[in-house]
Structures are given as structure tokens and as C-alpha cells.
Amino acid sequence: MLVEPAALELLASLADGDALLDAAIKAAASKNAFLVTHAAVDQLLSAKASEKKTVQIVVEHASFRAPAAEMNPDIKLDVNRDITDKSRCTGTIENFRDYFRDRFARYKRLFHELPSQIPLQPIARVRTATDPHLRVIGMVANIRGTRKADLLIEIDDEEDTLPCFVGARDKALFDKAKEVLLDEVVCFEGRMYNSLFIVKDVQWPGIPFRQKRVADTDACVALLSDLHVGSKFFMQENFERFIRFLNGDTDDKKTAENIKYVVIAGDVVDGIGVYPSQEKQLVTKDIYEQYKLFGELAKKIPDYIEVVISPGNHDAVRTAEPQPRLPAEFTQDLEDYPNMHFVGNPAWIEIHGVKFLIYHGTSLDTLIPALPSLGAGYEFPEKVGIEMLKHRHLAPIYGEKPLVPEKRDYMIIEEAPDVFHFGHVHKNGYADYRGTSVINSGTWQSRTDYQIRLGHHPSPCLLPVYSLRSGTTKILNFS
After folding, report:
1. Which of 21, 245, 288, 330 has the fewest CB atoms within 10 Å, i.e. the most exposed one?
2. Which pLDDT tens digits describe the chain residue by residue (479 residues)?
3. At what angle do helices 38-52 and 5-12 cross, to 10 degrees?
């Protein structure tokens, strides 16, 4: 029996690929066919996915009473930093003006907090200054190379524009300057030469070194993202194993019994029309049905566990960021559950005094190609998270991905979070950076045809569990 290369590649990306191959060979043999095609494997996947729609999870609650059930929840949702019910943008010139003014003003405060013996000065004053040690901030309006392969970066402030020169001969400085992004606010140190500012150093706000904040509780937080319920690549059996784990059906009861919180960073469903030919890979093309399937799974989470749900680019909200919470018309099955909390994207929450920044991560698709240091960013998403913290912005480049020019720039990282949790790229990643735990929680979807074409290698069903007492992350494998 022959197998198409495309079919082999699809089978290799699936956890149950061997079993599906056997089934495909039997199906082909029954039709006197000599070739297992990609379409045949796809058809088997669809049939299997349709069966999943009616699977019932049987959970025994009575036999397991976790210590977390006796813990009082301590969770605060920061509504002031959540766009939900606050979007007033109509796309006018004034909206854009106010948006960028807000971005500049708040960055200005961040840079003033940085220790330096050189005072910050506005561009107008720098232009006429003769001091050899100057410091200026501005929003990056343009970046271009010169004929001699040097860099010319144009920055603006509220009143003026300044062309800034970075010479290629100083390789360390030149490489650093190549990390400057359009539309972000950056600080340069240097001197004036005629009408050019000669850059001697590049600074970003960054986050300060600090001791990791912990809490006096054994409560733990399970971090998830990118479930993609409704896709035939959603690994439902594995996710059901996770649900049973939360309900005590596990050998690792010590971990399960202390999980008091579940935080989901977007893409709870696969959505419709998100990428080309997506409809061929859906269990159901009804978006309401997709959320109903998700709701049936979420209801099986023990009611003593507080669940925080944020949207992503596959969810039924506007694609432009910041995104409001999931509309109640899609989550009506869960609205009456007091332990279910819906927030926007991004969102800030505080759990037992530990501050979490939740962001789906759509801007990673823009940042990875824009920053030379992130060549392998899809394989190591934690490195992208660290860069966001350095630049103090979740999506600094305007226009690459849709951003709404609200009066306030909700994408600025105003303070250093204790935990930065994001997803989107379907690849787990973890790092500690200056007292912040940077965590990408991967996915619960197997490798799709689209990801194969892009060359992405997901790490499905790896669950990060964050200990509030120790500030450490444990990884549970449900694959």
C-alpha cells in the first residue's frame, strides 16, 4: 500500500497517527485502492472529530475533596486596565492623535524613572545643545539604512523631529540599534553634530531587578491557552484527561488538590474564517456550537476553582487589540457560574497579591520577524516575552496587526508583572526575567496543515502549574 507524502506528513503530526494510518490502509483496501491519500486521512479525522462532539465526561466529585476547596479565593480583576465596556474609538484623526500622545506621555514617565546622570531634554533643546553628553527620547517615525550601511533613525516628540545616526563601525551599538522598532518610544544618548544626533547608546525602559513576589498560600494556578475547541485537531481526549485530573482522577493528587485557579489566555475555540480553508478542518462551522462545546467542558471544572477566560484572535470578538471580553451571547452557558470570570485581552489580575499580566500574544507574529535577535522566536516564545518586557509594550509596531487607537494605550506594560502569561504560537516556553515569570502555555491542538506549511512545531498538552508560594512552575504532560 502506498501513502501520499502529504498524508504521511499529516499523520506524523498527530498523536494517534499510527492508529489512523492503520484505519486508512484498511479503508483503502476495502475499496480496492492502492494509495492512502491526504483526503482519505482528512476524512477519517473528520469522522473521528464528529464522534467527539457527543462524548460525555464522567466525573466523580464525591470521592475527591481537595484542600483547595477549603481555601478562600483571593482574586482581583483590574477593570481599569481592561478595555471591556470602555471602547469609544471611532477611527478619527483625533483618536490617533490622542492614542499616540498617551503612549508618548506614559513612556516619558517610564524613562524619567530610569537612573541616569544625564537629564532628559526635549528635541528642540537638544538641537541647539553643545554638551557632548545628551539624552533624548522620541517616538520612532522612520528607520532606514544609508549608502554606507549605517542607520538613520528619525524620532519625534510633541514639538519636533530629530534625525539620529548610528554608525555601522561600532558593531555592538549597531546591533543594539537594529532592535529599535517603528512606533515605539526609545531613548538615545549621544551628541549633536551639525543637524544630526550621533547616537552613543540606545535605551529602553525595561523592568527593574526585583525579588520575586510570592504568597503565603499553597494555592496553585493552572495556565492554559489555545484550546481551539471546534477544530478537528483539538485534542479533546487529552483535555478530558486534564479535567479528570482536576477532579482527582490522577496519581499526582498532591498537585491536583492545590489547584485553585485556572487562567486561559485566549483562543478557547477555533472560530470561523480565521485562515485560508479553515472550514475544512472544523468539527462544526457554527460559532455558537463551538462555544457550547467549550462550555460543556468548562462546566466540568470543579466549582471551587476560579476560572479566568481571556479572548484571542480566533475568538468571537473584534480582531483588533485591545479586545473586550467574550460577549455574553457566546458564553451564556457559563454566565451563571460564579467561579467563571471573563476578562479582555490584555488583562491584569491579582491572585493572593501576585500580579498576572494575561495577553493572548497575536503581536508575536510581528515582533519575531522585526527583531533580529528573535530568529527562532516561534520555538522559544519566552524570548519574545522578555523582549516585550524590555520594550514595555505588548504590540509596539502600529499597523502590522490591527490595533484600535483608543484614548489610552492599553498595550503598554505599565508595571512589571509577577507573572507574564501568554500563548498564540502553540509552543511552551518558560523563563525568569528580573523577578517576572515569563510563561507561554502552549496549546491543546495538534499540528494543523496550516502549521505544517508555516513550519511551526507545537507542543500540545503541556500544562504549566504555577505555585504562588514558591514562584516556580511545574509542567504536567497530558499528551
Report:
1. 288
2. 666 666 666 666 565 666 677 777 777 666 766 666 766 766 666 556 545 454 455 555 446 679 999 999 999 999 999 999 999 999 899 999 999 999 999 999 999 999 999 999 999 999 999 999 999 999 999 999 999 999 999 999 999 999 999 999 999 999 999 999 999 999 999 999 999 999 999 999 999 999 999 999 999 999 999 999 999 999 999 999 999 999 999 999 999 999 999 999 999 999 999 988 888 899 999 999 999 999 999 999 999 999 999 999 999 999 999 999 999 999 999 999 999 999 999 999 999 999 999 999 999 999 999 999 998 899 999 999 999 999 999 999 998 788 999 999 999 999 999 999 999 999 999 999 999 999 999 999 999 887 888 888 999 999 999 999 999 999 999 98
3. 30
- The domain 115-203 is placed in CATH, from the list 2.40.50.140, 1.10.565.10, 2.70.98.10, 2.40.40.10, at 2.40.50.140
Beta-ladder partners of 202 = 188
**Among 3.40.30.10, 3.40.50.300, 3.60.21.50, 1.10.540.10, what is the CATH number of 67-87+209-477?**
3.60.21.50
d(CA 287, CA 272) in angstroms, rounded, equals 7
Pairing of strands 462-467, 340-342: unpaired
| pTM of the predicted structure, to 2 decimals | 0.87
